[in-house]
Amino acid sequence: MAFKLKIPQGKSKNGGSGSRKSRALVWFAKDPLMRLALAAFALFSVVVLGIFSFFFIKYDRMIEERFRGPVFTTSARIYARARTVRPGDHVTARELAAVLSRAGYADREQDSQVGSYTLVGTGIRVTPGPQSYHAPESATIQIHDGVVDSIRVRVGPHA
Q1: pLDDT score, position 47
Q2: Cα 14 vs. chain centroid, distance in angstroms?
Q3: Which helix (H) or strand (E) is 123 found in, with range?
Q4: Contact present, 125 and 140 (Cβ < 8 Å)
């Protein structure tokens, strides 16, 4: 069985039907200046949202591309105080090897763009690589009884 429900509309204070809100909405929809302002606001919002989306996607892809590779291996490493070694300093070759390894230098068996080191006899030979911040000359540090005896710098391609 079908039935129809009719809800009576109340009269407003002014004698007309409908509430004040509905009349304001009708006036807003009928006024051409208001429709133009609403359209301009909508267009402006779409343009701003489009520009924001474009740059968000652009920089998101850049960040994702950089995070695909090694993140922290390309740091400059020039902001830390350099470890200086002079004749007479108390240090062992193994301690120097550990410091160089933390700085990005590799053992002679591995490749590193920063440089390499080799333990030789009672000392260590340090060879900076092409991405080293320091001079391209290699140096051999001779250590006897835990004290740096001498540092010899070798200039040339096969130092």
Answers
A1: 98
A2: 65
A3: strand 123-128
A4: yes
